[in-house]
Amino acid sequence: MLCVYLALSKKISIADLGAVIVLIGQFLQNFTNFINQINGIHGEALSVHSAMGYFGLLAEKREKTLHSVDTVNFKNVSYAYPEEETSAVKNISITLKKGETIAVVGKNGSGKSTLSKLVLGLINPTNGEIKIGNDPMCDVSYETLYKPATAVFQDYVHYAMSVKDNISISNCESPLKADDACQLLKNLGITFVDENSNITMQTELGVEFGGVDLFGGQWQQLAIARAAYREAKIIVLDEPSSALDPLREAELYDTFKKLCENKIGIIITHRLGMCMFADKVLVLDDGEMVEFGTKEELLKNNGIYAQMFQLQQGLYAE
Ligand code: ADP
Ligand code: MG
Predict the structure, then answer these.
(1) Closest residue by CA, ligand 1 atom 5
(2) Both ends of the chain: CA-CA distance in Å?
(3) Which helix (H) or strand (E) holds 307?
(4) Mutual orientation of helices 246-260 and 216-229 as an angle, nearest 10°?
(5) CA atoms of 213 and 177, how far apart (whole Å)
(6) How far apart (Å, rounded) are the C-alpha atoms in residues 187 and 180?
(7) Do residues 243 and 223 lie in contact, with contact meaning Cβ atoms separated by under 8 Å?
(8) Pairing status of strand 288-293 against strand 280-285
(9) Could you give the angle at which helices 178-188 and 246-260 cross, rounded to 10 degrees?
(10) In sequence order, what are the beta bridge partners of 78?
(11) Residue in 81, 117, 122, 154 to alter for ligand 1 test, most ligand atoms within 8 A of Cβ
(12) Is 108 in the pocket of ligand 1 (CB under 6 A)?
């Protein structure tokens, strides 16, 4: 406005006015770019942080091999996420044994997934100690630590690969043969992959590269197949039926039971029906282990588990 006034009062020429308007435009554009770059730095820094974490893992010297995977022992274990003041898991002491399946229940945010990451060695306790057999988990090399473990995570990955590769990526050492793959899916009761349907073993999945997209429940069933394909001694199933319809879920109960057989099994679930085949139930509340025992013991205890049980039972009884 000042320049327009100056031009009108003939203190600057029209050419000057034009130049100033162009300069202001350029200045605003560069300034906006500059602000956007600052915004971007934050996002990039997060990626760099992840990458550095990954390289840190590679550089970390952990050379001990694992001797036995018969027990996982938590002694006063707490875990706080980086830069968080409160611990997501607090002072847990428990021993998980081979051949025993533990169901973990509790409200959202009570620390169930964090506990499962601790069992798998994906994160290290900020306090306390975890031992696998007699070996402190934090000394064991990642290679031997991860080898005997398998999991269906709550946020399972949708790999933009073929159906076959989505399953066999959990066990790269033994490529999946077509017959074995069909048998595996048959055992798991997964029927949407079929040579006569539009989704076969070779179908490329994921819209990123022009493949087929699946329903949430179908992706979750592939995640279950992926976990099942890996030979394991420890298995974590973190809400493995959250995206399935009730019929499919009921059909998979037997599968989950079989998957956990003879292993150290952890099954995280909101649905108490799923606790039926667990040997013991662990109730987390705000990161603390508030109840632990058999279903019968917990029902007698009349605590959180009993309340959840009665609530869910009431819904169905009505
Ligand atoms: P649950 O599986 O029982 O829902 P989680 O173990 O996912 O609970 O989370 C426990 C607590 O830790 C929650 O308060 C959650 O907000 C926090 N939390 C989970 N993941 C992270 C993370 N990556 N960074 C910071 N806080 C987290
Ligand atoms: Mg969770």
Answers:
(1) 111
(2) 74
(3) helix 304-317
(4) 10
(5) 23
(6) 10
(7) no
(8) antiparallel
(9) 110
(10) 127
(11) 81
(12) yes
pLDDT tens for each residue of the chain, 318 residues long:
898 999 999 999 999 999 999 999 999 999 999 999 998 998 899 899 889 888 887 778 888 999 899 999 999 999 999 889 999 999 999 999 999 999 999 999 999 999 999 999 999 999 999 999 999 999 999 989 999 999 999 999 999 999 999 999 998 887 777 778 888 888 888 889 988 888 999 999 998 888 999 998 999 999 999 999 999 999 999 999 888 888 888 888 888 999 999 999 999 998 888 888 899 999 999 999 999 999 999 999 999 999 999 988 888 776
Residue nearest to atom 23 of ligand 1 (CA): 81
Query: What does the alpha-carbon distance between residue 299 and residue 293 come to, in Å, rounded to a whole number?
Result: 10
103 CA from centroid of ligand 2 (Å): 13
The number of residues making up the chain comes to 318
C-alpha dihedral (133, 134, 140, 144), degrees to nearest 10: -30
| Helices 216-229 and 178-188: angle between axes, nearest 10 degrees | 110
Q: How far is the CA of 89 from the centre of ligand 1 (A)?
A: 9
What ligand 1 atom has the least distance to the C-alpha of 111?
Answer: 6
Cβ count within 10 A of residue 196: 5
Q: Taking the CA atoms of the chain, what radius of gyration do you get in angstroms? A: 27
**CB 255 less than 6 A from any atom of ligand 1:** no
Identity (one letter) of the amino acid at 170?
A: S
CA distance to 68, 129, 130, 273, 287, per residue, from 92 (Å) = 22, 10, 10, 25, 9
CB 253 within 8 A of CB 274: yes
Total Cβ atoms within 10 A of residue 283: 24
- pTM exceeds cut of 0.90: no
* Residue 40 tokens, joined: 């971007």
